[in-house]
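The following record pairs a protein chain with its ligand, magnesium ion.
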Amino acid sequence: MVEIKTPEQIAKMRAAGLVVAAMHKACAEAAVPGASTKELDEIAAKVLSDHGAKPNFLGYGGFPGNICTSVNDVVVHGIPDRETILRSGDIISIDAGAIVDGWHGDAAITVFVGDGHAPELHELSRVTEESMWAGIAAFRGGDRLVDISKAIESYIRRQPRPATGKYGIIEEYGGHGIGSQMHMDPHLLNYVTCKRGRGPKLVPGMCLAIEPMVSLGAATTHVLEDDWTVKTDDGTWACHWEHSVALTEQGPLVLTAVDGGKAKLAEYGVTAAPDPLA
Ligand code: MG
């Protein structure tokens, strides 16, 4: 069953989404060479408490952080700690979440630490982020869930291939419904498979976390002994971008984007729904 939200509930999710955006802004500024991933976690915790919001990552299945900090060949679910010190040339996915009045927000950004990154890493991040926007622009009433998967995959496959051969669209993880819980039905693949069918029809009141994860090589991953950290099987680096999005009667509202997705969706000819909190 897919949870359908009222406009009032979407407004609460917007409040949670703006807290997540504030967590990202603060963490991105602090992701400099010499910083530990634990320091980023502490900054995220402070933003949560400053906004009177609750963490949804902390304690989720026993997860020990307020955010996931996934560096280089770690795709997702990296645990913040004092031993992981960021170096110039690293990339880090910062996945953050917040609860306001019982309603959840969840988003991820990939941040470039310092400088000296290979151009193909910038291109990997651009392709991953842009495929997310292609997916968000495909979140349209009357279409099916698979149309979002198709938009993400086809965006990635339309891009020039990296020197390493082919972008790996990570297979074991994907997007999800979000609302009164962080992870809800439906599961959203970042590629199309004949096995899953077309999925539910997209209707106003649905909220989805849309989150492509793309590597410079393998689409397959493994989990480390800590039971959380997910790395690419071939050691190639990966990017991860995510927004929580509500479909309203007026179109999509990107809950975790400061401008509600207005600027980026306009590039796709889509008008973002008005911000209920503006
Ligand atoms: Mg998510």
